[in-house]
């Protein structure tokens, strides 16, 4: 029996779908399948006995995988993946184990699906067709339906009751037409049809690739209504983009490479993490050593603080160390202001007003106890903005303070005795070397660690204590107290 | 004349140095502070055709400017970087418990707990290290496509076909009914595709099938800022890791990846080089670039400072869409979860594929690297989650 392909690539790409890359893979799969059936260069098929009948053009999984491996010049495993996709999308169907839509790289038997049943066909497998199919099988032999099919059948019988006569008539017609075919042809067609419905009405636990999930709603091909508004917006956007300062590729790409090089030894996928990766050895020592409030951090952690101010501030343990340094320099107010501004920015909308007031009193008001030294212009802007405080009112001041810390304070910190001290004292854990028996042990005794909620509560308590301890000291009052003495 | 007047108003406000970042429904992009533009000769012929031509001219001028600065390719710069060795990445944990397709997952900052959501409405919080399920909530809707863990570790957010994003505070008491304390925060006019907390538990950023993104105040449910600009469903978003933390990137069905200013709601950069829906966007760890994964079977890298696409990660044998991408800690590796059930690992600098991982029995729908980079987790339509290291 020669495979009669009316036209390969039945997917109709006219109109909007022409741009629908989503479905281009159907074309690729179809092209692949057509090539695989080439009598000279395709996959070699043979006749196989299925029950009593002999079916032509049966191929084995390993032949398919070998052919794809050769064609795509890749490994057998990747070829297997492509093979599985061909089965999952219904271009090839398994003869044994017909509900498992995977490609097995062994002597499992498969056949090519007839193009009539290809998923790229535009017609949707609707419920009436399914009802006719189930009814037809019921006519042939009662009790032939599997339990999940019986459920479908009962359901459809209820919902399509109004056209049930038509369905039974169609089913009977098809059954009679089937009887008139030769037995091998009938068996082949039955297999093809069964494969089609496994794909479109998958039984539980069958992974059919046609199961796509909810539809995307807005059609991007429907062009946005062309209006003055649209073009004016676009033009302003383009003008802005043209004027925005851009950097030469060599500079920005160089920066990307530099980042990778800097962090290379810190990436657990590229360098072993000490003492060991918890997921690999089931020992959580790595996490315990790197907890938030550990007394002595590890050398790697301390090294990471030196990479950028951002790293130092993001690691709260690093921020603590930075604060120790700032206290010694009597310049803690910049960081305190930055932290307060962060609290404002990321806080609840309702707390905005009170936070803004506190910040003004503490940092910005004339003679404020923790007055920050920023330039007059920024100060003026910020104070004016605080009259009607909003989330980003401190942006200018915060940026100024951050830049100051980044360009000056941070580098002095790295050269300071505080940092050098912690560098010396930092721990350098020995890499673990667990025996297989020990690894077994570890796997049995995985530690639950401390729950993040508990850690969070502890952190909040610490913060409250710290805030109370460094509450705005009324310098003037303190001074006058000392004077009076 | 109309156009010029509006520009003038913008400038005079700016010249008073009062940047107004309050929520605004004005769709006009703000021009930067530049008195030159006011005196620039702008064609004021209001015919649509004229504007259209101007638009095309500006577009080519932008391309020209970009091209002038394009002096080297990424793989050229990467030539001096040493190659990567062989990788042994295996499944270290398999989390079974969802009764249906896993759609989304997120890591807790404690580096071991995760939250995952599935098609049947279940949201589960796991300690992935011990594989214990700690909490389970059943949402009143199916297809919970988005979930996120709060930075404090004390709450999770999720949403999907209910068009909402809800926050559930977690509790130490395993028997407590979390649904009782549920808080509805975001409200869209179509499905929720992604959500993320910002630097605190108090704000959530969402993206939706209605074509918009939005920033919400958790406590009051108030809309703080909305982001309009996508022409179709927005499918994904990611917040910038920079210390200023004021931008995020989103990807949509209109094949565009847009970078937004969270304060003003404006789109500041836009990239349209993919050939199909963008399913996932993720910032490079330094914040100066981002990667995207799309239904066109490619992942791409975009350089924000040079304002261009700088790499395409694709292979002839990979024909199925990418559902999810993420970087390793150093940014050297890009992990992609694909619809053909596999995970491909790419060398970001050299553009080659270093590894392909098998294990899932249906499409990989979500992929995230853990906060300390020790592992990455994948969720799949085969109902399971896997931790790889």
Automatic annotation (TrEMBL), chain B:
PROSITE patterns: WD_REPEATS_1 (PS00678), WD_REPEATS_2 (PS50082), WD_REPEATS_REGION (PS50294). GO terms for biological process: signal transduction. It comes from the Eukaryota. SMART domains: WD40. InterPro entries: G-protein_beta_1-5 (IPR016346), WD40/YVTN_repeat-like_dom_sf (IPR015943), WD40_G-protein_beta-like (IPR001632), WD40_PAC1 (IPR020472), WD40_repeat_CS (IPR019775), WD40_repeat_dom_sf (IPR036322), WD40_rpt (IPR001680). Residues 41-75 form a coiled coil. WD repeats lie at residues 95-136, 185-226, 227-270, 271-312, 322-356, 357-389. Signal peptide: none annotated. Keywords: Coiled coil, Repeat, Transducer, WD repeat. May interact with RGS9; this interaction stabilizes both proteins and increases RGS9 GTPase-activating protein (GAP) activity, hence accelerating the deactivation of D(2) dopamine receptor-mediated signaling. PANTHER family: GUANINE NUCLEOTIDE-BINDING PROTEIN BETA G PROTEIN BETA. Belongs to the WD repeat G protein beta family. This is G protein subunit beta 5.
């Amino acid at each position: 029996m020669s495979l009669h392909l009316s036209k390969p690539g039945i997917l109709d790409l006219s109109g909007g779908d022409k741009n629908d890359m989503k479905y281009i893979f159907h074309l690729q799969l179809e092209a692949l399948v057509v090539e695989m059936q080439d009598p000279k260069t395709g996959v070699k098929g043979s006749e196989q006995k299925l029950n009593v009948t002999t079916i032509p053009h049966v191929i084995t999984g390993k032949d398919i995988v070998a052919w794809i491996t050769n064609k795509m010049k890749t490994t057998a495993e990747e070829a297997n993946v492509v093979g599985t996709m061909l089965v999952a999308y219904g271009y090839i169907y398994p003869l044994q184990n017909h509900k498992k839509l995977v490609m097995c790289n062994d002597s499992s038997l498969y056949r090519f699906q007839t193009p009539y049943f290809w998923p790229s066909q535009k017609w949707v497998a609707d419920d009436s067709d399914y009802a006719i199919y189930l009814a037809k099988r019921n006519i042939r032999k009662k009790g032939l339906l599997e339990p999940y099919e019986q459920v479908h059948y009962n359901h459809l019988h209820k919902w399509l009751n109004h056209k049930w006569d038509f369905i039974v008539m169609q089913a009977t017609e098809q059954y009679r037409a089937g009887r008139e075919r030769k037995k091998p042809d009938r068996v082949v067609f039955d297999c093809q049809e069964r494969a089609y419905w496994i794909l479109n009405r998958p039984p539980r636990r069958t992974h059919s690739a046609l199961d796509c999930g909810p539809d995307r709603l807005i059609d991007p091909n429907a062009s946005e209504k062309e209006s003055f508004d649209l073009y004016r917006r676009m033009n302003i956007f383009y003008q802005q983009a043209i004027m925005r300062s851009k950097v030469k590729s060599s500079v920005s790409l160089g920066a990307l490479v530099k980042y990778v090089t800097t962090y290379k030894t810190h990436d657990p996928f590229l360098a072993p993490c000490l003492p060991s990766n918890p997921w690999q050895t089931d020992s959580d020592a790595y996490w315990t050593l790197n907890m938030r409030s550990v007394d002595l951090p590890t050398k790697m952690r301390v090294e990471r603080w030196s990479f950028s101010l951002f790293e130092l501030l993001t690691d709260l343990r690093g921020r603590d160390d930075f604060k120790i340094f700032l206290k010694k320099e009597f310049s803690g107010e910049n960081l305190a202001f930055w932290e307060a501004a962060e609290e404002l920015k990321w806080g609840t909308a309702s707390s905005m007003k009170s936070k803004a007031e506190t910040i003004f009193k503490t940092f910005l008001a004339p003679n404020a106890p923790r007055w920050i030294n920023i330039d007059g212009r920024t100060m003026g802007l910020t104070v004016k903005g605080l009259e009607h405080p909003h989330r980003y009112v401190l942006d200018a001041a915060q940026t100024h303070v951050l830049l100051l810390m980044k360009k000056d304070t941070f580098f002095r910190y790295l050269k300071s005795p505080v940092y050098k001290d912690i560098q010396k004292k930092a721990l350098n854990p020995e890499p673990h070397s667990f025996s297989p028996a020990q690894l077994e042990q570890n796997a049995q005794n995985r530690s639950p660690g401390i729950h993040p909620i508990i850690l969070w509560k502890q952190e909040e308590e610490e913060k409250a204590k710290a805030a109370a301890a460094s509450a705005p000291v009324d310098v003037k009052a303190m001074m006058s107290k000392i004077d009076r003495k | 004349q109309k156009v010029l007047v509006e520009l003038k108003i913008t400038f005079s406000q700016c010249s008073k140095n009062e940047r107004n970042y309050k929520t605004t429904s004005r769709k006009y992009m703000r021009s930067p502070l530049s008195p030159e533009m006011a005196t620039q000769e702008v064609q004021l012929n209001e015919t649509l055709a004229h504007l259209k031509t101007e638009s095309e001219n500006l577009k080519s001028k932008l391309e020209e400017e970009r091209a002038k600065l394009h002096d080297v390719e990424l793989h050229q710069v990467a030539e001096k970087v040493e190659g990567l060795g062989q990788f042994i990445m295996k499944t270290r944990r398999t989390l079974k418990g969802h009764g249906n397709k896993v759609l989304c997952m997120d890591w807790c900052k404690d580096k071991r707990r995760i939250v995952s959501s599935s098609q049947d409405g279940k949201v589960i919080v796991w300690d992935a290290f011990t594989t214990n399920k700690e909490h389970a909530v059943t949402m009143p809707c199916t297809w919970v496509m988005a979930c996120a863990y709060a930075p404090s570790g004390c709450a999770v957010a999720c949403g999907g076909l209910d068009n909402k994003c809800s926050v559930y505070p977690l509790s130490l008491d395993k028997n407590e009914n979390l649904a009782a304390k549920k808080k509805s925060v975001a409200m869209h006019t179509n499905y929720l595709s992604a959500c993320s907390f910002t630097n605190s538990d108090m704000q959530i950023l969402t993206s939706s099938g209605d074509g918009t993104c939005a920033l919400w105040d958790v406590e009051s449910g108030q809309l703080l800022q909305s982001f309009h600009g996508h022409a179709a469903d927005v499918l994904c978003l990611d917040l910038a890791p920079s210390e200023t933390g004021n931008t995020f990137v989103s990807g949509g069905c209109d094949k565009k990846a847009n970078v937004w200013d969270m304060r003003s709601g404006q789109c500041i950069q836009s990239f349209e080089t993919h050939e199909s829906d963008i399913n996932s966007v993720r910032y490079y760890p330094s914040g100066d670039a981002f990667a995207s994964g799309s239904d066109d079977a490619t992942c791409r890298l975009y350089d924000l400072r040079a304002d261009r696409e700088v790499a395409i990660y694709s292979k002839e044998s990979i024909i199925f869409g990418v559902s999810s991408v993420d970087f390793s800690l150093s940014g050297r590796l890009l992990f992609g979860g694909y619809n053909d059930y596999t995970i491909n690992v790419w060398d970001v600098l050299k553009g080659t594929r270093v590894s392909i991982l098998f294990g899932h029995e249906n499409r990989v729908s979500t992929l995230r690297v853990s906060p300390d980079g020790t592992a990455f987790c994948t969720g799949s339509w085969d109902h399971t989650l896997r931790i790889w290291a």
